[in-house]
Amino acid sequence: MKKILFAASALLILAACNRFATQVYEDDLTLPLSEESADSLHMAITIEYVTGGIGTGAMAAINHTIASQAFDLEEADGTLEECAAAYRENLIDLYLNENDGKEGLSSWEDQLDGIFMPDWDGKKNYTLSYYSFRGGAHGIMTVSYLVFDPKTGRQLTEADLFQDGYKDPVAALMREALQKAMAVDEEFQDMVDMEMVTPNGNFSLDAEGITWVFQPYEVGPYALGLVTADVPWESLKPYLK
Asked: Which of 32, 55, 85, 117 is 20 to 30 A removed from 105 (C-alpha atoms)?
């Protein structure tokens, strides 16, 4: 009986070790500009990253890409935690230096969130959301989609999904999808520069198809906000590898 129980326990432990595991890095800071000032810097970081369940090399590659994208680095030098700490210190220095002796509004907001989204066909979807306010009429919100192959840790690109020559026909599908989605609001539809609606590498995958996202100002004025084009797999099928 003891041998049977031990075997069952071992299987449970093995299953747990093979399960994709993540952890969340969090940092929250409110820094007054000075003792006399009501203005302040508010920074909030919440970044999910991989801690187990895949190969060590793949895990390192995914976390390296997340850190590079999240903290706007050409190459992430160090762990995600180290990159986040450096980002925090650089932001503090930038805030204090740029607002030294400045008149008027001097409060900044900096919010960064990264989270794994539901998988599709074994691929790992990840979303980075960033909000920045530096004074003025409004802040700016951006969203970046990352898709990973968990076997290698490599970030997938459109070239991994599509055959050569895909850009023009897929762009036409994206424009068609966007026009349908905006049909109820002609004012917003008229704001979109449809020629700019092309595959931009910022996409996520799900059971329905591929979603591309465009940042404010990328395909039209700020009033448009984030613009998404959802194209179903059935329409994309002729151009997929």
From this structure: 85
Cβ(206)–Cβ(120) below 8 Å: yes
Q: How many CA atoms lie within 13 A of 39 on its CB side?
A: 17
Kindly state the DSSP code that residue 160 receives in the 8-state scheme: H
| Tens digits of residue pLDDT in 176-201 | 999 998 877 777 778 899 999 999 99
Torsion angles phi and psi, residue 210, rounded to 5: -115, 135
How does 113-127 read in b/e, with b if 16+ C-beta sit within 10 Å? bbebeeebeebbbbb
Single-letter residue type at 72: D
Structure tokens at 172: 């036409």
- Outline where DSSP puts E strands in 19-178: 21-32, 40-52, 108-120, 123-133, 140-148
Phi-psi region at 167: left, alpha or beta (left = phi > 0; alpha = psi -120 to 50)? alpha
The burial class, CB within 10 Å (0-12 / 13-18 / 19+), for 186 is exposed
Work out whether strand 108-120 and strand 227-232 pair parallel, antiparallel, or are unpaired: unpaired
Q: How far is it, in rounded angstroms, from Cα 180 to Cα 56?
A: 44
pTM > 0.85: yes or no: yes
Q: Are 140 and 216 in contact (CB under 8 A)?
A: yes
